[in-house]
């Protein structure tokens, strides 16, 4: 999965530090990221490769660290003529994994910063905390942390037929997926699973079992995965505005996915292997 970057280690602790020559700099325009072509493949520019003024260097935002190399966000205008621009969707295919993990996590933090420019209580411009990864109002003291939305994803299995429910959303094209949705106010994760399955495909489930979790920066969510057995009729009633198509698939019908990016695709692959 995208967060599995061995032998590298991702450190998300906030560190007030100055950029070093080998540190990587992330720059975005709209939904594109600036990258540089190297003989070994695509990479992010190093601090030493950018001709930043002292003021521009001081304005870099520390994001996180992978092993001993820090990653910074540049929000100022600099000369980018020697760089190439790629859509952030390419993080789904970018190798090695640690570069993809770094890129999409930077996107998550960039989006958070863009939507936390002013205080929602008093309207004052927010500033960066010197001690933690947070936006702080200098007038009323309100603190804003990065947005992480809880989301459940469920592998629904018809044990009598040994088939897995696979869906396709309107925004995912032909990509196979599992039933998923945001956790609403006042409900447990288990209640969210039952509600989402009922809403999206009109089914009831039982025997819920927790599978695992995954940070999914593409949508600023924390995915919490469950396996559930079909309870009752397998007849599907689709929520048309959410689900484009859905079908029950056997292990023989599912295509192999040797390197699943998401926890949902990992569950699909494990069902195909008879391990779910």
Helix/strand layout:
Blueprint lengths: L9 E2 L12 E3 L1 E2 L2 E7 L2 E3 L10 H5 L2 E6 L2 E5 L10 E4 L9 H18 L12 E2 L6 E2 L6 E2 L4 E10 L4 E7 L9 E4 L6 H13 L3 E12 L4 E10 L12 E8 L12 H10 L4
Number of spatially distinct domains: 2
What is the number of beta strands? 17
Count helical runs.
4
What coarse outline follows from CA principal-axis ratios? globular
User: DSSP strand (E) fraction?
Assistant: 25-35%
Low-confidence parts? none
Order of helices and strands: EEEEEHEEEHEEEEEEHEEEH
Measured as a percent range, the helix fraction is: 10-25%
CATH superfamily of the largest domain: Nucleoside Triphosphate Pyrophosphohydrolase
Rg is: 21 Å
CATH class of the largest domain: Alpha Beta
Question: According to CATH, what is the topology of the largest domain?
Answer: Nucleoside Triphosphate Pyrophosphohydrolase
Strand-pairing-aware structural class: alpha+beta
**CATH architecture annotation of the largest domain:** Alpha-Beta Complex
First-last Cα distance: 17 Å
Residue-averaged pLDDT, rounded? 95
**Mind summarizing the main beta sheet?**
6 strands, mixed
């Amino acid at each position: 999965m995208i967060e599995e970057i061995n032998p590298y280690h991702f450190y998300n602790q906030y560190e007030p530090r100055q950029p070093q020559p080998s540190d990587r700099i992330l720059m975005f325009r709209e939904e594109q990221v600036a990258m540089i072509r190297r003989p070994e493949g695509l990479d992010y520019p190093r601090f030493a490769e950018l001709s930043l003024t002292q003021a521009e260097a001081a304005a870099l935002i520390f994001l996180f660290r992978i092993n001993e190399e820090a990653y910074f966000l540049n929000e100022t205008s600099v000369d980018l003529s020697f760089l190439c621009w790629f859509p952030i969707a390419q993080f789904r295919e970018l190798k090695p994994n640690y570069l993809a993990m770094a890129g999409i996590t930077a996107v998550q933090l960039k989006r958070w910063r863009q939507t936390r420019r002013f205080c929602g209580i008093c309207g004052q411009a927010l500033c960066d905390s010197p001690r933690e990864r947070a936006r702080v109002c200098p007038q009323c003291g309100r603190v804003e942390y990065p947005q992480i939305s809880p989301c459940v994803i469920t592998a629904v299995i018809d044990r009598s037929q040994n088939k897995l429910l696979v869906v396709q959303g309107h925004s995912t094209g032909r990509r196979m997926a599992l039933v998923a949705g945001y956790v609403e106010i006042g409900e447990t994760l288990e209640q969210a699973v039952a509600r989402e399955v009922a809403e999206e495909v009109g089914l009831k489930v039982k025997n819920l079992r927790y599978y695992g979790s995954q940070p999914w920066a593409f949508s600023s969510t924390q995915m919490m995965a469950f396996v559930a057995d079909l309870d009752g009729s397998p007849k599907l009633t689709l929520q048309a505005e959410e689900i484009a198509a859905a079908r029950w698939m056997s292990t023989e019908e599912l295509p192999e996915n040797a390197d699943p990016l998401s926890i949902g695709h990992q569950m699909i692959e494990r069902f195909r292997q008879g391990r779910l």
